[in-house]
Amino acid sequence: MTASILDTAQEFPAIIGAFVFCVGACMGSFLNVCVYRIQRGMSIVRPASRCECGKPVAWYDNIPILSWFMLRGRARCCGAKLSLRHPIVETLTGAIFLAVWIQLPFPNCAIGMLFASLMVFCAFYDIDTMTLPDFATIGGTLLGACAAAAFPSIFSPELDGAPFAVRSAVSLMRSAIGAVAAAGTLYWIRLLSGCIFRKEAMGEGDVILAGCIGAFCGWQGGLFAIFIGSLIGSLVMLPVMAISSLIESMKAPNTESKPTEQKTEGDDEQSQSGSFAIPFGPWLAFGALLYMIFFKGICDAYLAGISSALFGV
């Protein structure tokens, strides 16, 4: 069956590619549901999709990506505005699935799509709540270890001639080392940044998410995600923060007209905070996906060269 799928993919690449994109878009629709409902303590199975007014959403109004545009961003039943988040996540997940299918051989792409779904969920959950749920981060770490043990040909391809038990044990060990190395590195960065800035720079969920990335991608992928995630996050968010601060300063209220007005405790805390919190999880996930899809070979070869130069191995 696997051979027939691969033969079909080679004969009709555009059709298979479109199918993979559609599967990813459907997964994105499901991830939207998960992000919305789990943070509110709701079941992801029941009830079926409903509008804010309480009316069920018809199947033809629940088609990933297309329905939002056909409805022009408004609910058919009551005209309520539909979040742009829906087509964005669906399109993003579909594009990631397609990139994984194109870049990774079978069956590596199947594990890659599973990992990508986990990263997309964690990224948008963190954006909404500034937290990362343990079932996704800790569970994802265990899932990565199980995948390494069950599919050693993906995680240790150079050992294909060895017995399955040996390959499985080696892959599991590499997954564990990756999880510990990535989580440990980010943990020490968290402690150091806390000492420098005198406040918590990132949460424990980010540390566990780094471990999850290391379990799937090895220590190389974990370190790549931490470094690239921090770099890209800084390059993107620092200008945003600067512009936001400038806009807020221009909107400063005129206190001369109200000399006797007193600040409440909440206002004082808000003025002291000054800056807005930035979730680190999305940037970690972005770095991990970049590594898995595009930079794994280059990064692994580069780090292997450094290791050989420093330690002679």
- Sheet having the most strands: none
Structural class label: mainly alpha
Distance between the termini: 41 Å
Low-confidence stretches: 255-274
Which strand-content bin applies to the residues?
under 5%
Which bin fits the share of residues in helices? over 70%
| Overall outline | globular
Counting copies of identical and different chains, the oligomeric state is: single chain
The tally of strands reads 0
Global mean pLDDT: 86
Explain the layout of strands and helices.
Blueprint: H1 2-11, H2 13-38, H3 66-70, H4 85-103, H5 108-129, H6 134-150, H7 152-155, H8 164-197, H9 204-250, H10 265-273, H11 281-311
Helix pairs in contact: 1-2, 2-4, 2-5, 4-5, 4-11, 5-6, 5-11, 6-8, 6-9, 8-9, 9-11
Descriptive report:
By secondary structure, the protein is mainly alpha-helical. The protein has eleven helices and no strands. The longest helix has 47 residues, at 204-250. The radius of gyration is 23 Å and the shape is globular. Residues 255-274 have low confidence and may be disordered.
